[in-house]
Specification:
This protein is α/β, with parallel strands linked by helices. It contains 13 helices and eleven strands. The structure holds pyridoxal-5'-phosphate (PLP).
Length: 393
């Protein structure tokens, strides 16, 4: 069968997957590779969560849950917003448990987008965002952002790119690839623009919990206060270290829930049951303490890696506030970051993600380093990169 729908022409692969495949091949040949390309925590899932998962399996919790998720988990997620200064407590009825943030993004796009509708997002950004918009026949309006705005959209940029076809703005804070936050003040200003224009605000908060200075405001703080329509996407993948369990959530406006329930029933019936039972343990004090100490380790790694990269000659124009990425300007060494990453892998045994994976603006000058690896491995990686760069001189 050779038929593939036209829209698939616009769905690009993750370029880093090809790099990862090559890295694995080199490892299979006995070469040592330092992984600084990976977008998931290196820590295993916390023992308390794993035990809860095993217990769920043993107790036969292997049937579908309700499409919107286990009521107890929806409650716990809603309660986790209590330490944000929300204008009113978040109702569990607005929380939808999904197969990862990816499932949440799919629900949001399908509930909002009519053919031709525009969704504003930054370039660079998490690449699947524009692909999801495209799959629902919408148009991703990718607005170039650079270090001047910490690689984030501003209210002024959103205003300037709003058209009669714009329906929504999609933000991520902290972001992937730069790990930067949108300052609270700016997020409020963005919510005001979106509300004034009658649009929808979508905020991906998947790296919440992994921030190293201030705890950022959660989007409902600003948006609910203004009564602007906001969807918040989050996940158990990153802070909770559960990437492979495939579990995330969505906080949606009350009126959209019947439609979202219909979509969830049709798309995936329910999020994985064992993962949902396991996640009930994610909010216990023990697990939270464990996750907090992991966050501290990520902070130490960031504090080691950023100056080390700058010493090598990479530019780190904005210190990442969170996540586990550093988005570097590598223009001192290359204007073809993809080729640079390939050479770095082949000649130095260090895997790094080229800017191309996150868009087109400045992509050929930028690379993303992930510090989801031990300090020892990061040090080895830096030493190898130094030798590689010295050889280029
Ligand atoms: C910004 C962002 N959003 C969403 C996702 C998807 O995550 P999940 O594993 O929860 O589907 C990722 C994964 O890397 C991400 O970086």
């Amino acid at each position: 069968m050779s038929r593939i729908a036209d829209r698939l022409q616009d769905i690009e692969p993750f370029h880093v997957m090809a790099l990862l495949a090559r890295a694995k091949q080199l490892e299979a040949e006995g070469k040592s590779i330092i992984h600084m390309e990976i977008g998931e925590p290196d820590f295993p899932t916390a023992p308390g969560i794993v035990e809860a998962g095993i217990k769920a399996l043993e107790a036969g919790k292997t049937k579908y849950t309700p499409a919107l998720g286990l009521p107890a988990l929806r409650e716990l997620i809603a309660t986790s917003y209590d330490n944000h200064e929300l204008p009113q407590p978040l109702s569990a009825s607005r929380v939808v448990v999904t197969p990862g943030a990816s499932g949440a993004l799919q629900l949001v796009c399908s509930v909002l987008i009519n053919p031709g509708d525009e969704v504003i997002m930054s370039d660079p950004t998490y690449p699947c965002n524009r692909h999801f918009v495209r799959l629902f026949e919408g148009k991703a309006v990718s607005v170039p952002v650079n270090a001047a705005s910490a690689y984030q959209l501003t209210a002024a940029m959103i205003e300037a790119n709003w058209t009669s076809k714009t329906v929504a703005v999609l933000l991520a804070s902290p972001s992937n690839p730069a790990g930067t936050l949108i300052p609270d003040q700016e997020l409020r200003a963005i919510a005001t623009v979106v509300k004034t224009r009658g649009g929808i605000l979508i905020v991906d908060e998947i790296y919440h919990g992994l921030t190293y200075e201030a705890e950022p405001m959660s989007a409902p703080d600003s948006a609910l206060a203004l009564d602007c329509d906001v969807f918040v996407i989050n996940s158990f993948s990153k802070y909770y270290g559960m990437t492979g369990w495939r579990l995330g959530w969505l906080v949606a406006p009350e009126q959209t829930l019947p439609a979202i329930e219909r979509l969830a029933q049709n798309f995936f019936l329910a999020a994985p049951t064992v993962a949902q039972y396991a996640a009930l343990a994610a909010f216990t004090d023990d697990v939270q303490a464990e996750l907090g100490s992991r966050r501290d380790q990520f902070r130490l790694r960031r504090d080691y890696l950023c100056p080390a990269l700058e010493q090598l000659g990479f530019k780190v124009p904005v210190l990442p506030d969170g996540a586990f990425y550093v988005y570097c300007d590598a223009s001192n060494f290359t204007n073809n970051s993809e080729q640079f990453c390939t050479s770095l892998l082949e000649e130095a045994g260090v895997a790094v993600t080229p800017g191309k994976d996150f868009g087109t603006f400045g992509a050929s000058d930028h690379v993303r380093f992930s510090y989801a690896n031990t300090i020892e491995n990061l040090e080895t990686g830096v030493a190898r990169i130094k030798k590689f760069l010295d050889r280029q001189k």
